[in-house]
Each structure stands twice: as C-alpha cells, then as structure tokens.
C-alpha cells in the first residue's frame, strides 16, 4: 500500500533557498483573524484599492505535493527540494497567477485558518506583511453560532472560536504587523483604512469606502450573510456586557483588552 503524503503540519519547512528565483510573488499581505471577525468586510474594502487584489479565501496551505515514487523524492532532493519546498513553490505560483490576472500589484489572502499556519506562511514568504484583525471574543462566538446554529451550540461555538483566537494571538506575538479591530473598522472606516494604507506604504484610495458587493459571497470562502451583501459598511453589533461574556472567553477578552 502506498504511503500517504505527510500533512502540512508534519512536513519540515524552511525559507526559500534563493528568494529571487524561488518566489514570483512580492510582499503578499495576509489578514490573520479568527472566524466571524469581519475579515470579508475588510478584504472587500482592500480589494477596492487599485493596488490590492483581495480575492475570496484561498486555502492554499491545504494544497499539497506528494512524491509518487522514491526515485522522484531522490531526484527532487538532488535538486535541493524537500516536500515543503515544492509545496511552497506551488502556493507561490497559484497566488502569483491570481495576482497577475488581476492586473494589480499586491495580493491579499484572508483565510482564517491561516492563523494555524502562520509560521509556515512566514517561512514561505519572508517578505510577507501581516494585518491582525481582532473582534470582541463574545461577538465572534455569537456570530459563529448564528452562522450554523444546527452545527454547534453557543457553548461549542465559543470553544471552537477560541481555538482561532488563540492561534491569532500566537501569530500576533510572533510576527511583526499591524493590529486593527473590527469595531474600529465599522465605527471609523476611513481612519482605520488610512492606517492600513500607511502600513502597506500605499496611497489612500477613497474608493475603499464604497467597495460594492464582493464578487464571491459563498459559505466556506468568506461571509455570505446579508450585511456583506449590502455593499456598504454596516454598524457592528452592540458589545456584550461583561456579565454576558462566556467564562471560557474571559481570559481572551482581557488579553485583547476588551475588558479589564
């Protein structure tokens, strides 16, 4: 029986040996965020910038490479490639192709599960830029439950969403980047977006405020609810009172400074 290819988490990875040759993509942008944190809204706004292409969630970290034979593995090793090197070449090629077809300068990926692979993403693209998007943990959990109430109870939604929050916090502690909050994005969109443009060394583009309806509104590839379909910034939900925050989320609320 053929051996199954190793999962991405089990594969040793490293930065590109020769970035100028090994990478076609330059300075990609990754929005690192939990689920239900407003990342589809942010990506729609960023996509309206003339220099940024922010497509739907791309899930490239799930694209894998396998060696069909031991000889193929030996041949690649003789060229200096391990499995992760080849997967990184694939990821880079997929994103670069998408960017070239858009005609823009930089690509943005906002797949929430990227938070679990931040080390590998940073190794794949040493020049990557990171924007960390936070939201009140209790609001994330409530929205995660409402997204699929038949799949998870409010308690299960809180526990599952907390996995993403912890991953985002680990990434935020390990990587340089800009932290923005969903509440600020919806309350003061221009101020928040200007800060992002400054961080990315891009000129301000007022069309980011009137981004229109995202081109892909599909469950599993981003938000698909009515708010995002409206094509304009909608007010965020009222923040929960401290006594409404589930016990499992209270430490994260303190870490992210939503409660003292």
Provide an overview of this structure.
The chain is an alpha/beta fold and 260 residues long. The chain contains eleven helices and five strands; from the N terminus they run H-E-H-E-H-H-E-H-E-H-H-E-H-H-H-H. The protein has helices at 19-22, 39-47, 70-78, 83-102, 118-124, 137-147, 154-174, 182-187, 189-199, 226-229, 250-255, and strands spanning 29-32, 52-53, 106-109, 129-134, 178-181. It has a five-stranded parallel beta sheet with strand order 2-3-1-4-5, sandwiched between helices. Helix 6 (137-147) crosses helix 7 (154-174). It is globular, with a radius of gyration of 19 Å. The relative contact order is 0.18. Residues 1-5 have low confidence and may be disordered.
